[in-house]
Amino acid sequence: MAQKIIAVLVGSLRKESLNRKMAKELMKLSPGSLQLEIIEIGELPLYNQDSDDNPPAAWTEFRDRIKNVHGVMFVTPEYNRSVPGVLKNAIDVGSRPYGKSAWAGKPSAVVSVSPGAIGGFGANHHLRQSMVFLDMPAMQQPEAYIGQAANLFDEHGSLVNESTREFARKFMLAFATWVETVGSS
Ligand SMILES: Cc1cc2nc3c(=O)[nH]c(=O)nc-3n(C[C@H](O)[C@H](O)[C@H](O)COP(=O)(O)O)c2cc1C
């Protein structure tokens, strides 16, 4: 079975980001049928519809990279009970020009990570709202609201907790099946 290429988008730019740590652990624990790579979104110019006819090179490069993957995994913090602006900007950039969205049909998964108790539930579901419009089939189960995340990693960014590691492994296995089931070849 050919490997499926998966874009990983992290909704935090912070150097010590818990979300980036979680994304890297998920990548390590994923089955061999997936090839995951983080696509950086921090340098994407803010979306402006005036630039649709003459887009910045960074927008075009980003859109092309998304068009070439088989699926997308979002790993995001919650900012003010919603999606951080940097991630929303990347989603908007990828969605245009109208009728040429890079996201259409891409199987996807959402993981939210927070030091708080409810694991970024608000961001997770706000993101899913956009994915409905963008026609990105989003994996329903297992859901991933990773709470109390400040206690989950050691100084090297590795998960300290075997139950979280096991959950991450199962999540990635389910996502691999999801990509095979609903994605195009
Ligand atoms: C602007 C801002 C808004 C935040 N709002 C929320 C929130 O609504 N819910 C929450 O659980 N944490 C919130 N936080 C705390 C973040 O969950 C915390 O900073 C987290 O570590 C960010 O993810 P990162 O470690 O990947 O950067 C907020 C943080 C910032 C900077």
Q: What does this entry look like structurally?
A:
The protein is of the alpha/beta class and 185 residues long. 36% of the residues lie in helices and 14% in strands. It is built from five helices and five strands, in the order βαβαβαβαβα. Strands 2-1-3-4-5 form a five-stranded parallel sheet, with helices on both faces. α3 links the parallel β3 and β4. The radius of gyration is 16 Å and the shape is globular. 38% of the residues are buried. The mean pLDDT is 97. Flavin mononucleotide binds next to α1.
* Neighbour order of strands in the largest sheet: 2-1-3-4-5
The number of E-state strands comes to 5
Shape: globular
- Strand-pairing-aware structural class: alpha/beta
> Helix coverage percent of residues?
25-40%
Can I get a quick summary?
With about 180 residues, this protein is α/β, with parallel strands linked by helices. The chain is built from five helices and five strands, in the order βαβαβαβαβα. The protein has helices at about 20-30, 55-65, 85-95, 120-135, 160-180, and strands at about 5-10, 35-40, 70-75, 110-115, 145.
Provide the descriptors you would attach to this structure in a database record.
alpha/beta; 185 residues; binds flavin mononucleotide; five-stranded parallel β-sheet; 5 helices
